[in-house]
Amino acid sequence: NAGVTQTPKFQVLKTGQSMTLQCAQDMNHNSMYWYRQDPGMGLRLIYYSASEGTTDKGEVPNGYNVSRLNKREFSLRLESAAPSQTSVYFCASSEALKAFFGQGTRLTVV
Amino acid sequence: QKEVEQNSGPLSVPEGAIASLNCTYSDRGSQSFFWYRQYSGKSPELIMSIYSNGDKEDGRFTAQLNKASQYVSLLIRDSQPSDSATYLCAVRNAGNMLTFGGGTRLMVKP
């Protein structure tokens, strides 16, 4: 059972570089989410998608864009990475009762 | 004011004691409430969900919800060292947005 798969697991970027974090789920869930987690802090919502074709801003959307490519895939793009975006990024998908998380992407921007 | 508030801790309890974790939320339209456990370096995992006022018990865990007071709590009975982790409170609103608190770090001492 794959569940929620995130790629890559680790990434180092230079300031100003761009990259896309990929997320795919195989549970046929409508809702998908991107969070960031900084040391000693909880999860902060970047963007979410309640269903295919819709996306909404969360608590900390600045500097990020998302694409809900289809029901399975929800990608997060950093157009011009900044050191403040150094964090662990989690993708999640959910049915009404439970959210499932990917294993996380540890991103460092130098 | 954050939408979901938790005391960051650490909360330290002796092995065998009851650990009490608390969470408040600001959106009165919130519909579903969750407790996640996160071990260091790992993804969050769901341990309890609750949707209506009152108590819900599952093994050593009891979730309590008071919508009038906008308050959710988690009790862990007979705490074990393996319960040492960060506990995240999460709230889902009518639009399916899932918002997390900052987490409470629990330490169970043998």
Question: Explain this structure to me?
Answer:
The complex is a heterodimer of chains A (110) and B (110). Chain A has strands spanning 4-7, 10-13, 19-25, 31-37, 43-49, 56-57, 64-68, 74-78, 87-94, 99-101, 105-109. Chain A is mainly beta. In chain A, the strands form 2 sheets. In chain A, strands 2, 4, 5, 6, 9, 10 and 11 form a 7-stranded mixed β-sheet that branches. Chain A has a 4-stranded antiparallel β-sheet with strand order 1-3-8-7, with no helix packed on it. Chain A is globular and about 35 Å long. The N and C termini of chain A lie far apart (35 Å). Chain B has strands at residues 4-5, 11-14, 19-25, 32-38, 45-50, 54-58, 61-66, 71-76, 85-92, 98-100, 104-109. In chain B, strands 2, 4, 5, 9, 10 and 11 form a 6-stranded mixed β-sheet that branches. Chain B has a 5-stranded antiparallel β-sheet with strand order 1-3-8-7-6, with no helix packed on it. In chain B, a hairpin with a 5-residue loop joins strand 9 and strand 10 (98-100). The mean pLDDT of chain B is 94. The interface between A and B is medium-sized, with 26 and 20 residues.
From the spread of the alpha carbons, the general shape of chain B counts as globular
Question: Oligomerization state of this entry?
Answer: heterodimer
**DSSP strand tally of chain B:** 11
The residue ranges of chain A in which pLDDT falls below 50 over 5 or more consecutive positions are none
